[in-house]
Design brief:
The protein folds into two domains: 35 residues; 215 residues, Alpha/Beta hydrolase fold, catalytic domain (Rossmann fold, 3-Layer(aba) Sandwich). The longest helix has 31 residues. It is an alpha/beta fold. Strand 1 and strand 2 form a beta hairpin. 33% of the residues lie in helices and 17% in strands. It contains seven helices and eight strands. Helix 3 packs across helix 7. Keywords: Membrane, Transmembrane, Transmembrane helix. One of its GO terms (molecular function) is hydrolase activity. Pfam families: Abhydrolase_5.
Length: 264
């Protein structure tokens, strides 16, 4: 006979839910920690660009024919003497991925000095053009006296330049060792695409493969002896080919090509 005072022994609450919660938290914190490390690593990588060579930048600053200003829009180079055949025309130029904006000052200064053009070199967030969502109109405020603007860039900067043209007042597009990722064949824009013969990153073959994305009358030029890094002054670039052209020779080539394009 069962006693009226007898009762089943109380059960201890299961600890499985609490253990499960701890495991979920552990996995969650581990995932967040891993993500934080990835983000931190990416930011550190992007924040260490190829630095500009000091000498060519000093040469631009010392050139009495060029005025240099550092503005929120970027690095502005303007002619100090009027009368050039590209006077009143400007170029908004987007640097390549992880390349310091100053690295392009010397190569682009010739068209300012010899043709009277205005050049604005942008300084993208984290040194990566795709993180800079500003439009062409956001940059042209740097020089309101200029009434005709081209846009362009080097490598990834050129891809970004292509994306800036639709719906803008761009007068033309200039690509340095680059190509468009989207179709602008029907845009009617004048396009100058310059490749380096020894460019092992944006090779002449790759540029030719993507030529159909540009207007049919786009002008293609290959500079002999130039590699990918020749379009700026920032030293050798990983994965690039060998160059056999000096910085001054490259500047002369680019000045002639840009002068013809911007004055046209």
């Amino acid at each position: 006979m069962t006693s009226e005072h007898s009762a089943s022994a109380p059960r201890r609450p299961s600890r499985r839910p609490s253990r499960l919660r701890r495991r979920v938290r552990l996995v969650g914190w581990s995932a967040l920690s891993a993500l934080a490390l990835v983000v931190l690593g990416f930011v550190m990588w992007a924040s260490t660009p190829y630095p500009a060579e000091r000498g060519p930048v000093i040469d631009v600053w010392a050139n009495d024919a060029i005025a240099v200003e550092y503005l929120p829009e970027g690095i502005l180079m303007t002619p100090t003497v009027g009368g050039g055949d590209a006077e009143g025309t400007g170029l908004v130029f987007v640097p390549g991925a992880r390349v310091q904006a100053h690295a392009y000052m010397h190569q682009l200064s010739g068209v300012v000095e010899q043709h009277g053009a205005t050049v604005l070199i942008t300084e993208p967030t984290l040194n990566l053009a795709f993180f800079d969502t500003r439009t062409l109109a956001d940059f042209t405020t740097a020089a309101p006296e200029v009434d005709r603007w081209f846009v362009g860039g080097h490598s990834l900067g050129g891809v970004r330049g292509c994306l800036m043209t639709p719906g803008s007042d761009a007068a033309g597009l200039v690509l340095f060792g680059s190509y468009c990722a989207g179709d602008i064949a029907d845009s009617g824009l004048p396009v100058l695409s310059i490749a380096g013969e020894n460019d092992a990153l944006s090779t002449p073959a790759i540029i030719e493969e993507n030529a159909g994305l540009l207007p049919a009358d786009a002008v293609f030029v290959t500079i002999e002896g130039a590699n990918h890094a020749s379009f700026g002054d920032y030293g050798p670039q990983s994965g690039d080919g060998e160059r056999s052209i000096t910085s001054e020779q490259m500047r002369a080539e680019l000045t002639a090509l840009l002068g013809e394009a911007l004055a046209g």
